[in-house]
């Protein structure tokens, strides 16, 4: 960044006016680099006669989910992965959704797929996920793949947690031995994030906080790394953050105008050493890691 020089002691940068500000963990740029690498790998697969194909199942008309799924298919087009899109109305029954899952399980053009979450109220999400062919699970959220992760066996890694890890590594944030606080316990990030961080290869110490946590602030103040995935607008305030900490803003709330509001208050940038913007941070990384899972599965299929 022109005019900015890094303060290597805490990872932040000093602005032209002399004030400290956090170094941006740029998810958009990092995702672009990953996609560029994948483009070459997809071309190599095609030379061997294999075209990876990502399927998506979108149920209902939630504007956020529609945007995310559209982004996933845009990314596919960029790297040469084929797209298979299935959309059902918000009134679809459990049986209708499961029929589409069975169809994609059988479709040879679909080498991996996802069910966009959340599903509408009244649908048994776990039953839908369990019905997926675990070998086609591009999200790493099938119970068998989550179980493999627990058992330290090879498995597709859940996209958002893996995106968080990739961003931290790319910017040289020390994970080994770090005190990490994960805020949230949802299936896409909160639950699997600690599983990834506590593998021997990462060796972080993780505290998981949630709505039942008595003193969130006390936990946050000790953290070297905060992964905020609560979906609670501006929950993380500057006074809760240790100077120099890395703060990853995953949570999404919407303002009255439909704009994204993250879990992290903008003032945190004045205290943190590293911060991921929202949008432009973990979101694009989630999409990039999804493509990584699709390409890796296709590569495994050719040995
Ligand atoms: N099956 C899944 N469902 C959901 C997952 C998931 O990993 N698998 N995670 C979230 C949503 N998500 C993935 O689908 C997701 C979130 C955000 C983005 C993204 O690109 N965000 C952009 C902003 C887009 C906008 O303007 O709204 C950004 O952050 O820059 C992509 C995917 C829940 N469901």
TrEMBL record:
Q: Where does NADP(+) bind?
A: 184-186, 252
In terms of superkingdom, the source organism counts as: Bacteria
EC annotation from Swiss-Prot or TrEMBL: 1.5.1.5, 3.5.4.9
* Record keywords: Amino-acid biosynthesis, Histidine biosynthesis, Hydrolase, Methionine biosynthesis, Multifunctional enzyme, NADP, One-carbon metabolism, Oxidoreductase, Purine biosynthesis
Q: Name one Pfam family in it.
A: THF_DHG_CYH
Q: Which Gene3D superfamilies match?
A: Leucine Dehydrogenase, chain A, domain 1, NAD(P)-binding Rossmann-like Domain
SUPFAM superfamilies per UniProt: Aminoacid dehydrogenase-like, N-terminal domain (SSF53223), NAD(P)-binding Rossmann-fold domains (SSF51735)
Catalyzed reactions per annotation: (6R)-5,10-methenyltetrahydrofolate + H2O = (6R)-10-formyltetrahydrofolate + H(+); (6R)-5,10-methylene-5,6,7,8-tetrahydrofolate + NADP(+) = (6R)-5,10-methenyltetrahydrofolate + NADPH
Q: In which pathway does it act?
A: One-carbon metabolism; tetrahydrofolate interconversion
- Domain named Tetrahydrofolate dehydrogenase/cyclohydrolase catalytic: residues: 25-139
- Provide the Tetrahydrofolate dehydrogenase/cyclohydrolase NAD(P)-binding domain boundaries: 158-301
What does the record give as the function of this protein?
Answer: Catalyzes the oxidation of 5,10-methylenetetrahydrofolate to 5,10-methenyltetrahydrofolate and then the hydrolysis of 5,10-methenyltetrahydrofolate to 10-formyltetrahydrofolate.
Provide the assembly information: Homodimer.
UniProt lists the family membership as follows:
Belongs to the tetrahydrofolate dehydrogenase/cyclohydrolase family.
User: NCBIfam families, per this entry?
Assistant: PRK14193.1
State what protein this is by name.
Bifunctional protein FolD
Q: Which organism is it from?
A: Streptomyces venetus
Q: What is the lineage of its organism?
A: Bacteria, Bacillati, Actinomycetota, Actinomycetes, Kitasatosporales
Query: Gene name on record?
Result: folD
């Amino acid at each position: 960044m022109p005019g900015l020089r890094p303060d290597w002691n805490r990872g932040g940068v000093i602005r032209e006016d002399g004030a400290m500000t956090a170094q941006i963990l740029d998810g958009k740029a990092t995702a672009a680099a990953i996609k560029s690498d994948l483009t070459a790998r997809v071309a190599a697969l095609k030379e061997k006669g294999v075209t990876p194909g990502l399927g998506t199942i979108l149920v209902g008309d939630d504007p956020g989910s529609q945007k995310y799924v559209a982004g996933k298919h845009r990314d596919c087009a960029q790297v040469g992965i084929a797209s298979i899109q299935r959309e059902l109305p918000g009134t679809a029954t459990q049986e209708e959704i499961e029929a589409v899952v069975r169809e994609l399980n059988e479709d040879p053009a679909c080498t991996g797929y996802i069910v966009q979450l959340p599903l509408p109220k009244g649908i048994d999400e776990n039953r839908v996920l369990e019905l997926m062919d675990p070998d086609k699970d591009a999200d790493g959220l099938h119970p068998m793949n989550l179980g493999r992760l627990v058992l330290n066996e090879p498995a597709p890694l859940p996209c958002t947690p893996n995106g968080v890890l990739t961003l931290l590594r790319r910017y040289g944030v020390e994970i080994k031995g770090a005190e990490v606080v994960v805020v949230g316990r949802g299936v896409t990030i909160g639950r699997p994030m600690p599983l990834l961080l506590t593998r021997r290869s990462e060796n972080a110490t993780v505290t998981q906080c949630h709505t039942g946590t008595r003193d969130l602030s006390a936990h946050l103040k000790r953290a070297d790394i905060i992964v905020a995935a609560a979906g609670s607008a501006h929950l993380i305030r500057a006074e809760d953050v240790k100077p120099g900490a890395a703060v990853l803003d995953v949570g999404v709330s919407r303002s009255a105008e439909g704009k994204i509001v993250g879990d992290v208050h903008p003032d945190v940038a004045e205290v943190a050493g590293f911060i991921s913007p929202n949008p432009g941070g973990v979101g694009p990384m989630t999409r990039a890691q999804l493509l990584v899972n699709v390409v890796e599965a296709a590569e495994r299929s050719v040995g």
